[in-house]
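Subject: design request, 157 residues
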């Protein structure tokens, strides 16, 4: 009756036409991963607390950049993770604004079919408030050490 190769080609042509004009995508949309509810809060003059909603068994990449283009202390930053949804960033400068970015990390199995979107939020460290200026005394290092500038004694404080 009909040649099987011709039937296969006709069905393939018809199915291609239906898929093209029906609005149905022939390729599945990639699943988008994002760190939701990112929150950056001030802890002190040198520390920010970063929290987000995380998925179990997922790792995240956290980065921090200062708003100041001439910021020279990036090497001093330390990221202390307290789980996969909480990170403390220390070694920051006082009264400085930062942008913190959190990005999910894909596993080897997820390389195909997943896409990653980073989340960003701004935070600012506290300002040091000087309560009292101690008068300068020649020969003393400062009011906290209580030691002479010439060197420590046998019983340092």
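Subject: RE: design request

Done. Sequence follows.
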């Amino acid at each position: 009756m009909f040649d099987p190769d011709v039937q296969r080609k006709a069905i393939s042509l018809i199915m291609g036409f239906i898929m093209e004009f029906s609005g149905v995508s022939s390729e599945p949309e990639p699943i988008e991963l994002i760190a939701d509810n990112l929150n950056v809060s001030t802890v002190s003059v040198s520390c920010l607390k970063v929290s987000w909603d995380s998925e179990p068994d997922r790792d995240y990449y956290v980065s921090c950049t200062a708003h100041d283009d001439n910021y020279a202390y990036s090497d001093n930053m330390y990221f202390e993770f307290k789980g996969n949804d909480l990170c403390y960033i220390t070694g920051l400068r006082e009264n400085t604004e930062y942008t913190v970015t959190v990005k999910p990390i894909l596993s080897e199995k997820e390389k195909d079919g997943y896409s990653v979107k980073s989340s960003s939020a701004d935070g600012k460290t506290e300002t040091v408030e000087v309560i009292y200026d101690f008068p300068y005394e020649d020969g003393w290092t400062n009011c906290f050490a209580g030691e002479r500038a010439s060197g420590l004694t046998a019983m340092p404080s």
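Residues 106 and 115 are 8 Å apart (CA to CA).
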